[in-house]
Amino acid sequence: MLPSLKQKLAKMSWKKLLAGALVLGLVVSAVAFIIIKNKKPAGIPVKTARAEIKPVQDNVFATGRVRLVEKQEFYSYEETTVKKINVNPGETVHKGQVLGLLDIDDLGDKLSNAKANYAVQQSNLENALNPRPEEIAQLRADYKKAGADYQNAQKKYQRTKQLYDQNAISAQELEAAELELIAKETEYKNADARLKIKESGPTGPELASLEAQVEQARIQMELAQQELDRTTLTAEMDGVVIAVEVAEGDHVNPGTRLITIGNTDKVEVTAGVSEADSGRLKTGQQVIVTAAALPDREYAGVLHSVSPGALVQTGNQGSQIEVPVIVRITGDSEGLRTGYTVDLTITTVDIEKALVVPYETVVEKDGKSKVYVVENGTAREKTVETGLNVELYTEIKSGLKEGDTVVVSPGDFLMDGAKVSALNNVPAAGGTT
Fold first, then answer.
1. Nearest to residue 65, comparing CAs of 359, 256, 362, 293?
2. How, if at all, do strands 44-50 and 405-408 pair?
3. What is the mean pLDDT of each run of 10 residues along the chain (433 residues)?
4. Range list of H helices, 264-373
5. Longest pairwise C-alpha distance within the chain
6. Quick one: pLDDT at residue 135?
7. 60-68+262-351 maps to which CATH number?
8. pLDDT on residue 271
9. What residues form DSSP beta bridges with 176?
10. Residue 123's closest CA among 223, 217, 222, 224?
11. 73-103+239-261 has which CATH code?
């Protein structure tokens, strides 16, 4: 019996399906073979960055306070009363101008007495060096009289002694005669000495004593004059009145600050730099100064001085060691008022072109700085000479060239010659990928 048409068609379809499946299997096998044949083993996934040429700048930051370079402050040196104030803050003053007066009390009399004493001491010295003839004549007369008195006393003593030996007088009378003799002898010797001093001039020690008395009197006179002058507050420079801290009639104690004037065109900043940053400071470094009171302004300055010593500063956050520095404003200082708190940016390094890599690419091995350069999918260890570490970068002085691809944070697992696979779209240190 012949098969039906339906059976023939079913048998034919099954054969076609089998043949198609065999063909599809061969194609898939071929593709898989090609993929497996061409596929290479995957490397260690790593982040990478490129060595770049960048400007390098290193800064030290500090906070300071503005003060005047040139100023004059007036203080009271003794307890007194403010008699007159002639100026107000902000006024321009000129050298020699009287800004105020203090009560002089008895300073005028004190100066007059000091001047008189100085004149007396000068006269004594002058008389010792250049005695008048009449003085010498008087001293000679005194010397002769003292000599005659001494001779008479000697004779009197001899007569008294004889009477005593004859038991004619008492021992008390003999003793009185002896004392008189001693007194007349002393007067005679003193008269002789005074005459010789006048005739020959004072000896070394005597002259030194007289000169010392004159010098002491001169110093006392100058001190009295200085005390009197201090009651007149006189400007020693041209400038502006910065502060008037007393009023007329105020009773002030010694050491009270009265008036401050200064040159507002010349200001500087005093600040303290942390111990860790102080070793990077050198005089002459450029400084940018900013103030919260002037947010849109920047002022140019230069590091004028760095203290050779450090100080312990105590604040709200405890104690810390700081090195005092002074920054001079070199350009326009308009708006910077004395007493302002300002921020300092001190540029310690400024290199226009430097080869740098993210600091995370450099590791220390065997006491040397190393990086891993990716070459054709392989990490190659290279020794480099590093320079500055600034912000996110490390300067490379030798061992790399611009454009080299380096591994970021290689870690201890990465070895020289290892196969690596760079991760895409992963930010590296410094903002590169």
1. 293
2. antiparallel
3. 47 49 50 48 84 90 94 93 94 96 88 92 81 80 91 91 88 90 92 79 78 92 91 94 95 94 92 92 95 93 95 80 95 90 93 92 92 93 90 91 93 89 56 42
4. 275-278
5. 211
6. 77
7. 2.40.30.170
8. 96
9. none
10. 217
11. 2.40.50.100
Q: What would the two tokens of residue 8 be?
A: 């023939």
> What is the residue whose two structure tokens read 């920047």?
298
Q: What is the dihedral of CA 145, 151, 152, 156, to 10 degrees?
A: 160
Tell me the CB-side half-sphere exposure of residue 370, using CA atoms within 13 A: 18
Report the pLDDT value the prediction gives residue 26, as an integer from 0 to 100: 52
pTM exceeds 0.90, yes or no:
no
Name the region of 17 (left: φ>0; alpha: ψ -120 to 50; beta: rest): alpha
Rounded to an integer, what distance in angstroms lies between the CA atom of residue 8 and that of residue 417?
67
Question: What residues contact residue 148 under an 8 Å CB cut-off, 6+ apart?
Answer: none
Which one of 3.30.470.30, 1.10.287.3510, 2.40.420.20, 3.40.50.150 gives the CATH number of domain 46-56+353-422?
A: 2.40.420.20
Q: Which two tokens stand for residue 198?
A: 């006048």
- State the Cα–Cα distance between residues 238 and 114, nearest whole angstrom: 34
Query: Can you tell me the distance from the alpha carbon of 13 to that of 8, in angstroms, rounded to the nearest whole number?
Result: 9
60, 391 Cβ separation under 8 angstroms: no
Q: Which residue has the tokens 């070895």?
A: 415
Length of the chain: 433
Both structure tokens of 421 = 């696979």
Q: CA dist 309 to 132, 273, 279, 315, Å? A: 64, 12, 12, 19
Contact call for residues 306 and 348 (beta carbons, < 8 A)? no
